[in-house]
Amino acid sequence: MGWKEFGKYSAAITSAVSPTVRPAAQRTSRQGGAGPDGLSYSLVSPVHSSPRLLEDRFIPMRRSFRSTLFIIVAQLSALTACAQSTAPRTPGRTDTPVTGATLAFAIGADLSFVAQAEAGGTRFKDGGVETPALQLFRDHGYNWIRLRLFHTVANSPWPLPNDLSYTLALARQAKAMGYKFLLDYHYSDTWADGDKQFIPKAWESLSAPDLVKAVEAYTRTTITALREGGAMPDMVQVGNEIFPGMMFPAGKLPEQWDTLAELLKAGIRGVDAGRGTAARPLIMLHIDKGGDRAKTQWWLDNAIRRGVPFDVIGQSYYPWWHGTLLDLRANLAFMAETYRKPIVLVEVAYNWRPSEYVGKPAPFAETPEGQRAFLEEINRAVMDTPYGLGRGVMWWEPAVAPGPLRSRGMFDDAGNALPVLGVFDKFTRGRLIAP
User: Are residues 75 and 116 in the same domain?
Assistant: First the structure.
């Protein structure tokens, strides 16, 4: 049914429910004035009609109204169905919004360095009281821990602790304290991110088909080890900030989209093969375009078009790299509307002392209070995401040893907690008393 036909039905229902209008020359009771044909018009007033006349007029009008209303409802249903069936579909979109019911709001932190820091003597204090870092974050409402995993850290040009045994021990400890566990595969011996994606040395000489097999086998083996060690992940991201691809040159974009898709699918198959009878972890695809709608769409559409299955969209957002808060909000709304999947800002951070905005305007002051204000606004943006699909925020490395990264952390140089640590207190403190 087109809009013209819809207009006709609108007119029909209007006449069915409106008072009857007749030329005054046919009646003895008048109200109103002259019409365009020169006759005086007035409304038929029920108070001047006999009960029988009123019944004769009302019953046909009621029947006409019901018939017309039935036709309109039927036609509107047909119009809606037609629009749904003929409208162009966005790849990956579902007709029914996903609420993210399988993923409660994630208040998380990437604490991949924390065990190394504490083993080296770093101590963290909250209100002057020294407290183990994992407990300290739990006390402030944090319910997710994110831990990265490198392939062979001995091959890294930088000293990194995040091998399988280190990650398993830290994840097991966190899960025992009630944390959910997000495993971050780098598929690299060292840092892999939006600027660089190094293939593990052990895989450098493999052909693309053999690399796909290696990714699946490695993922299966590591997931099995985590499960058997009491640290089964609740969510797994296959690759870290993989907007440019991963394991260069084999999966480098834009040239190797098909290969990248096969590598991602291999990682996901490995997760399924390694979990045994454990619940299937949610699968996240993680890119670093929090404030870039166009690039987000390009990447996700390509992944979906090639059949890469996933449950959660992960984004990084650092304002000095990834745009304004308005850019972020626009992209959150776009992702929710287009893909209807839960979205987590899986990496965010801001400095509590001058660092990224020295000599230039900053969105928030690089001070302890500015850092807190930043996280409050980020959380508000995520919670405002359409359909309730903003499903969490995770701070990157808030608890580290003294050094350059501490400026983005949640502790000052003496190890004292900064105001930012308490942002989620108002959302997580309270009691539900059973009746």
Answer: no
